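Hi Prof. W.,

I finally got the AMP-dependent synthetase/ligase domain-containing protein prediction working! I wasn't sure whether to trim anything, so I left the full sequence exactly as given:
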Amino acid sequence: MEPQNDIDDLPKNPANFTALTPLWFLERAATVHPTRKSVVYESKHYTWQQTYQRCRRLASALSQLSIGPGTAVSVLSPNVPAMYEVHFGVPMTGAVLNCINFRLNPLNVAIILGHAEAALVFVDQQYFALAEEALKIMEGKSEGLFKPPVLIVIGDETCDRAPLEYALSKGVTEYEKLLETGDPEFPWKPPRDEWQSIALGYTSGTTANPKGVLVSHRAAYLMSLNVVLTWGMKEGAIYLWTLPIFHGNGWCFTWSLAALCGTSVILRQASAKSIYKAIAEHGVTNFCAAPIVLNSIVNAPPEDTILPLPHVVNVNTGGSPPPPPILLAMSQKGFRVTHVYGLSEINGPATVCAWNPNWDSLPFEAQARLNARQGVKCMCLEGLDVLDTKTNQPIPADGKTIGEVVMRGNMVMKGYLKNPKANEEAFANGWFHTGDLAVKHPDNYIEIKDRSKDIIISGGENISSVEVENVLYTHPSVLEASVVARPDKRWGESPCAFVALRSGGDHVSDERKLAEDLMKYCRSKIPSYWVPKSIVFGPLPKSATGKIQKNVLRATAKELGTL
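And this is what came out:
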């Protein structure tokens, strides 16, 4: 009889193998720090023991409503405690959590609810009318086969009670009443398989063919640890929710905060004033924000700021390439900014502009330029490269050649729900294709130049809208800037800049002169064919996450007509 080779043949058993899931973080937090604050919202404070009990109550109550594996539960809400709790309570039942952008219109919401086949919808009282209208649209298109999802309204004492009272008059159950029906000792179980979906998020709700991103328990677990390890977050961190929680499940910081036994300070609506106030009152150590939010922080009026800061505050920024002048201004005010890059399909940061100690001796301006790059792969991402879009081969690390950013690894989404064609395209050649165009520098740090749909092709030459924007941001009169393509009779396309001015800066009484001044300024810093041929002044449209909506600006530029 041949001896057994136990090196690779020993079987898994319950003692040495279980499905990875971030849900265990909550159980640990309640055990290790039961009395530490878990959530702070206005006058409400919860401990980790209370949050664990509330999430188990929620899971128990949902199970009594036949919510379980294979079921989607949607949430339409700004940042409130319930929005944090559903990230544990819903998947504890085996169901999949679907957070929806509350700034979408009723048709967009209806498309997502229908595509996700949501069985239940949690809706904040402020957005109850939006949910009602979405359900009416769904009913009108169902041809009599519509089974409406159960609605649960989330009340908020800090808001006008009229919408809540209206919802209750319709017989809708209030969130806290639902929790009262649940068992605080509910015996929840982890998923049978870590490939099971924990979350479903949508990259867009504006078409009849939405892209629903499915995230596994395994990916959420790894991303939850990835974000804290990459950032160097400490145990007991005090995290300020300026990032909308619906956005990529809060970049998985929802689960990370439980892993760290930290405290979530929740803002229903973030502003520069509320951010500075929270730092002073709650000792905030960390927050995430898009560059546009950082812009509001550095340009806040003196009466809304608290400077110097009482301590160093760590900031994660991403969502769009941050202009170096904004990074410089944040640093000068005492914020330590880490630049990360990710997508909905990764559910959080995939790359980080890891700080090189050799940069410490450089001037602030040079440091900001280096920190504006998207950087290198995070420690839990297995593959990152920039490929030639025609040959699918890696581009040279020369800082000039442009290719598409691709990734692979355990943090990448499972795929798009009910969209095999999109999955085939996204995962072509064994990589996840981001659609972002970038260069790779000699130090192997990548730097995004544009989205593939945002690159401007003028006379056959590529123009990076990001680089033009970065130049505009250095002008003293410019508060915000975004550059898109405008139809051009001679060149096919030419850069069109949309600019918001600083208050107290140049008035737009003479738009022509101001536009000429900005063009002259750009001409001194970038190639002449990169200089915007048209400039539009006024406020810029933004998404709920603070991103400037280039799709809206592209449509506006098209409406302006051909140059």
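The domain at 456-559 is CATH 3.30.300.30 (GMP Synthetase; Chain A, domain 3). Does that look reasonable to you?

Thanks,
D.
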